[in-house]
Structures are given as structure tokens and as C-alpha cells.
Amino acid sequence: MTAHLYDLVLADGRRLSPYCWAAKLALAHKGVTLETTPTRFVDISTVAGGGFKTVPVTEIDGATIGDSFALALHLEKTRPDAPALFGGESAVALTRGVAAQGAYLLGKMSRPMVLAIHDALDAETQGYFRASREKMFRHTLEEVAANPDASVAAAKDAMTPLRILLRGQPFLGGDAPLFADFLIAGLFQWARVVGAVDYLAGEERIGPWFGRLEERYGETLAATRG
Amino acid sequence: MTAHLYDLVLADGRRLSPYCWAAKLALAHKGVTLETTPTRFVDISTVAGGGFKTVPVTEIDGATIGDSFALALHLEKTRPDAPALFGGESAVALTRGVAAQGAYLLGKMSRPMVLAIHDALDAETQGYFRASREKMFRHTLEEVAANPDASVAAAKDAMTPLRILLRGQPFLGGDAPLFADFLIAGLFQWARVVGAVDYLAGEERIGPWFGRLEERYGETLAATRG
Fold first, then answer.
1. Who is most buried in A215, B138, B220, B224, counting CB within 10 A?
2. Nearest CA to CA, how far is B165 from chain A (Å)?
């Protein structure tokens, strides 16, 4: 069957959300074909019958799943013969740690990107984005975006554990990618789509890791406009 | 059988190394009784027949294992009926990520602690410690220890993923601790033994998590002088 994912977009249709990218990589990993509906921030609450506040929202197997981690758990349970996304209960718990690491990185990586994201949204969505992000950061977008060099340096510093890990193994999941890889790859893909900061530039461990994911999921990652 | 661990000490016998603490927690988790030999930094190369550069060095089951992660893998393989330290191959790979996160945290947490550690070593060991750490940090210990408030704040910031994770589950390993918990707990125990910075103060998620580990491994964690 084909899954259906409501995919967050910028005004020109570019697919934005790191969590949507993680979900799309997880679906590709399990061999599930996918259709997407471009969805603006301000339309999230209206999709799939309503009731969802965040993306991805995914319709699959007769269910509607409003979270990328929950989708990955669903895929693991329903597609046990496809390559693993976790590989056991302990791995699920440990992948929650990677998700927490990803949330931290998201905050760091987003600072020098927020104005570029804002400027790439339509006028109605800009109002929502500015209000919600200024509440989240407790500063104006202009204040958050100030000192981009320092913000980029802080984000790069926060990637240190990833660099250390990739010295010793090709993927976060070991010899093959797991959902942990997709959670972090989603962030780099999000940054790449926005284009304001090239976080992969000069990354001798992280760059090749992302390249290995592109070798496996090139079609998914190339679909930056769906 | 009883395992034997060469345990890094300060001049007054306090047990220092975060990786030794992780190893001791892993041994306790698997129900292995333990004897320790207090070992100074400058004596590491002479223990267990020589050839080791770092601690913990552990003699167990007729083998000598010179790394806490390798020890945990050995325990998991040889004691499959005791509580798990990993829980499968994927979990091993993901725990390497926690170890990388721990190495990053170690660097951050150590900055405001380095002079206190130096001052608590005997004169011979102080020389080794200063030379090796100044090479590592590429600054004098006094420079590394400058601006302790900023260093503590940076270390606290780097603990953010741990705080996020512990909102949703009691241990890094989920409902029960895994080696991932011990890798991080070793850092907080190390800081507690040194006493220069109280990293658990005011930590509403991390403090109770460490308390839950103390409930389970209180005897191990109380043996700060062996």
C-alpha cells in the first residue's frame, strides 16, 4: 500500500521539516511507497480530519499517525521482515536519546536559519512562524539571527558527539542505518533545503555519512519539492 | 568469580575516573563481585603486566580488558542471564553514540574541574596530569580553568539532551538502566568525587535519575575510596 504524508512546505513548495524528512527516510527504509501533500504551517490543524498540531501526519494502514517516532514504531511493528529501524526494545529507548540529541541540535542549528525560513514563507504563514518562534526563543527573530557566526559555531560544537561516533562506525545504527540516523539526517536535509547555512561543508566525518545515506535513499532526499 | 579492577585515584585514595565508575556500575549490574587496586595516573602503564594506557583495566574470567566499553561487551556476552547492559546489536551501536556524547560532556564538565583535580594529585602525578591535559586542551590548566561560570554554563547547556530525554523515561535505557546510563552516570559521579562543581544541583530531571541509580547501585557509588 501507499502511505500518505502531509509534508511541510515553504512558499515555493520546498519540503522543510526535519521530522518529515526523518519520516520519509523511515518509509523508504521499510520499502513503503509514498504520496505527499504540501502543507503550510498554518494548515497543519486542518489536515487528516484535524486534531494535529505538528507534522509529519501520516496516513498508513488505515491509521493516521501524527509523529515521526510513532510512525517509525508502527513501521517496525508492521514490517518486521524489512530492514530494522530500531532492532529491539533497548534500541527504541536509546533512539529516544538520539531524538533528544536531535531536538537540541535543531535548536542550535535553527538560530542562523530562522530569518531565511521566515522570508521563504508566504505572508500568512510568516505571521504564525514569527509569533510561535519568538515565543519559543523568547527573542525576536532578528535577535535570534544576530551573530550568525557565533550561532553556527555553537551548532558545529554541538555536532561534536556525532563526529566522535562516526570515527568508529559508518552509521549511528552501526554497519547499517537505523531510525537514529534518519532523525539526525533530517536536520541536515532541512538545513540543505533552506540553504542559509552549509552545515556539511568541511565536515570530514558527517559529510561522508550523509553521502552514504544519499547512496541508499537518493530518490527520497532528492525530492526537495515532493 | 571476583573481578579485579585497577581504579584511578587521587592522592587521598578517592576514586576518580568516570570510565572506572561506568565499569564498576556495569559489573554491579551483572552481579559480579569486585576488588580494586588504587592506581595513580603515572602507574597505569605498569599494572596487569603492562601495555595499558588508560583505565579501567579489568581482570575477569582469565582475561585482562583495558576499556570500559569492551568490558561491558564481555559481561553481556558471558552473563546473558543477568540484566542486559545493551539488549542487542543495534543497542550496542546506539550505545557507542552515548559514549561519544559522554566524551563530549567529559570535555565540557572537566574545564572548571581541572585545577581541583590537579591539586588533589601527588606531586609526581601532577606533572603527568598537567603535561597531558595541557596538550589535550592546548592551553595551560589555569587558562582552561578561567571563567568557571561560563564553563559550567556550557557544560549545563550540553546536558540539555539528557534533560529532554528524561522527561519521557526514567533511564537512558528506558524502564531499566543499561550501560548507556552508566557511561553518563560515571561523569556525574566523577564530578561528585572531585567536588569542585555540583553539577546535580538544581537538576530536576538529571538529579532524580542519578538518585534512581543510587537506589539500585548505592553500595557501588558509595565506595568513593574503594
1. B220
2. 5
d(CA A217, CA B175): 33
pLDDT in single tens digits along all 226 residues of chain B: 899 999 999 999 999 999 999 999 999 999 999 999 999 999 999 999 899 999 999 999 999 999 999 999 999 999 999 999 999 999 999 999 999 999 999 999 999 999 999 999 999 999 999 999 999 999 999 999 999 999 999 999 999 999 999 999 999 999 999 999 999 999 999 999 999 999 999 999 999 999 999 999 999 999 999 8
Distance CA B15, CA B133 (A): 19
Q: Say if the Cβ atoms of A169 and B84 lie within 8 Å.
A: no
B55 touches chain A (CB under 8 A): no
What average pLDDT is seen over chain A? 97
A80 part of contact set with chain B, CB < 8 Å: no
Domain boundaries in chain B?
2-222
Whole-number Cα distances in Å, A91 to B70, B116, B172: 19, 38, 10
To the nearest whole angstrom, how far is the Cα of B38 from the nearest Cα of chain A?
30
Q: Is residue B168 less than 8 Å (CB to CB) from chain A?
A: yes
Residue B104: how many other CB atoms lie within 10 Å: 20
Q: Are A2 and A35 in contact (CB under 8 A)?
A: yes
Cis peptide before A80 (omega within 30 of 0): no
CB–CB contacts below 8 A, A to B: 107
* Architecture of domain A2-222 in this structure: Up-down Bundle (1.20)
